[in-house]
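User: quick one
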Amino acid sequence: MQKKYLMTPGPTSVPTDVLLAQARDMIHHRAPAYTEVLREITARLKKVLGTEGDVVIFGSSGTGAMESSVVNLFSPGDKVVVISVGYFGDRYAAIAEEFGLQVIKLSYPRGSPADPLDLEKTLESHPETKGVFITHLDTSTGVENDLEAFGQVTNPRNVALIVDSISGLGSSPLYLDAWNLDVVVSGSQKAFMTPPGIAFAGISSRAWNMVERSRLPKFYWSYQKSKDAYNKPIPQNPFTPPVSLLVAFNEALKMVEKEGLENMWSRHRLLAEATRAGLRAMGLKLFATGGWGNGVTSVLPPEGVDGGKIVRMMREEFGITIAGGQGDLKGKIFRIGHLGYVDRLDIILTLAALEMTLARLGVEVELGSGVRGTQEVFLKAEG
Amino acid sequence: MQKKYLMTPGPTSVPTDVLLAQARDMIHHRAPAYTEVLREITARLKKVLGTEGDVVIFGSSGTGAMESSVVNLFSPGDKVVVISVGYFGDRYAAIAEEFGLQVIKLSYPRGSPADPLDLEKTLESHPETKGVFITHLDTSTGVENDLEAFGQVTNPRNVALIVDSISGLGSSPLYLDAWNLDVVVSGSQKAFMTPPGIAFAGISSRAWNMVERSRLPKFYWSYQKSKDAYNKPIPQNPFTPPVSLLVAFNEALKMVEKEGLENMWSRHRLLAEATRAGLRAMGLKLFATGGWGNGVTSVLPPEGVDGGKIVRMMREEFGITIAGGQGDLKGKIFRIGHLGYVDRLDIILTLAALEMTLARLGVEVELGSGVRGTQEVFLKAEG
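Assistant: Done. Structure below.
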C-alpha cells in the first residue's frame, strides 16, 4: 500500500467533501435547485476576486478563459502588450497572435519577475496600446508579478490590464476593483481545490466597454451571452454547465469562506516559505531569483542529476506527484506545488521523500535537513 | 421524502458507479495514471462513433464542440448549408454566421424532419458549398434526421457533412465512417449518462484536409493541437482536461460496452415507442408529425393547459424533472426525455405521475391509461 500525494501546481488534491459533492444526484441546469448553486458560486467568486462587478463562468480549462479575454475585448489588428515571465505568458501571446492582435511581447529571463517600469516605457512608445496581458503566478517558474504595481501603470492611461491568475488567485492577494484590474481569469483546479473543468473571469466596467466595441467573433466564450443568461429572472448559464463540478466547486468555496481569504493567503505564504527554507537547508538552489509566488517553488536539481529522474522516483517510490520543467526547462528544474488543499505536514513529508530520493540517486544530502528547515519556519510562525 | 427523477433530454440521470467515480482521488493529467484513462476513452469513443479516424476531446459543453467544427474546417466567407429542424439547428446557423460563414439555411417547420431532396437541390444551385451542418436529434422538438440519407447527398459531391449528435449519439444508430459523416460532435451528458462538461468530436480524413486549409483563428478548439498532444509518446490533452469527469466518463463507457451499442439503441427505441404509445393512450397528442427520435418525446399539452404548468407540477409534486418548450415553443409543448440511464419502470412512473398531474389540473384523463399503453409495448417487445 502506498498513499498518493499530489504536490503539483495544479490540478491539486481535492478534499473528500468536495470529491463527494460531485457524486450527488444530477440536477438539471434549468431547474431551481441549480439556480441556487449558480447564485451562491457567483457571489462567492465576487468576494474571491475582490470585485463588485460581473463574474462569468465557463465549462473549460483556464486556457479557455484566457481565450475568452482576447476574443471579448479586442478586434483584429489591435495593439496589445503581453508580459511573459514563463510558459503561460508565452501562451497568452500565442492566443493573442492567433486571433490577429498586434502583440508587443515583454519577455523576462525565466526565473525573474516583470518590471512595471518597462511597461511604462513600452506604453509611452506605443500610446495606441489597448490592453496589457500579464500572468499573476506563472507556474512554469514559480514567479509572481506585482499586479498592483502594473495596475498603477495601466489604469491612468486607460489601458486594460488582463490577468491570468489561474494559479495565483487564492494563494496570493488579488483585488480586482481596488487594483484596477480589468479581466482576471482563473480556474477551479488550483488554490480552489476542485477538479479541473471550471474557469471563470471577473470583468471590470472598462472591460465591458471594450466588449461593446470588440469585433472578434465569439459564441461559446461570449461574456454578453453569459451576462444575459445570468440576468434572466432565474439566473442561468448560456450553455449546459458542468453541473457536478459546480456543485463541488460551491462546497470548496464554502471551505474558502470558512478559512477566510486572508488566512488562506497566509497559509499559502507560510507553506511556500517553509518549502523554500527546507530546500535551501538541504543544499538545493531555487530556480527563481526573485518574485517567488506562494503556489509553487521551482528548484534546480543537484549538479548532474536530471530533474525528470527526481520527479519519476518521487512518484514511483513514494507516491508523490511533483512536476518537472515545461518546454525549454524540461529536465532542468523540478517544481513542488503547495497550492490548494495542502497543510504543513504535506510539505514535511514531501521534503522527507525528496531527501530519500536524492540519497538514492547518489546525491550527498543530510537526511532530515530539509525537514528541519521547514519545521523551523513553522515553529517560528507560531511563536 | 420524495425521490428525484431526471426525465429530461439532458443532463440525464447518472448511475451511482459513475457518480462515485468522480469522487476518486484526483490524478494529474500529465501522469501515467491519466494516460490510461485517456487512451481507453479515446478507443471507446471511436467504437461509439463508428470510426477508425481521430477523436478529439474537449472540456466544454456540446456547444463548444459545435463551435470547434466551424472554426477548424472553414474560413470567413465560405458558403455552408445549415439544416434546421429546431432550436439546435438554429444554434448551428448562429455559430456559423458569428464566424463569418455565408449561411444558406434550410429550415423546416418545427416537428418535421429534413428532406434530403431539398439538400440535393440546394447543393445543385450552390455548387460552391463547402459544408452542410445538420442536427441528428434536435431535442427541442424530438425530431431525428436520417443522417445516412444526407451522407449520400453530400459524399459524392465532396461536401463535408457536420453533425450535431449531442443527443442522438448512443440513442440511435450512427456510423461516422460507413455513412460518410465528416465531423460528429457529441457530449457526455446525454445517452452517455455522465455529468455535463465533456464534449468530443470524431473527424474524417476529408475534414482533416479542410482543417489544413481553414483560416479561422483557433486555440482552445484546435483539432490540430488535440491531435498533436494525443500523438505524443505519452498521449495527453493540450490543456488541462476535466479529469474527474473523464474518469467517470470512462466508467460510463464501460457500461455502454457491457450493454452493447446495438442493445443500447434498441433499449432507447423501445423506451421511446412505449412513451409515445402511453401518451397517445392517455389521449395526448405528440408534437412531432414524423421523424421521432429515440431520446425525447415532445407532447402537446391538453387544450387550455400551459405546458410550463405541467412541468412545474411534475417537479414539485412528484420530483420528476421533465422539460418545457424552448424559444418559440415555450409553454406550447412539454418534453419527456428517455435518454441515458433510463429503464422501463422510469417510463411507467413518469406517465403515472403525468396522469395524476393532468387530473389535478382538471384535465379529464383515465388513470392508468398511459401506464397501460406503455406496458402493452413492453410486454409485446418481450414476445
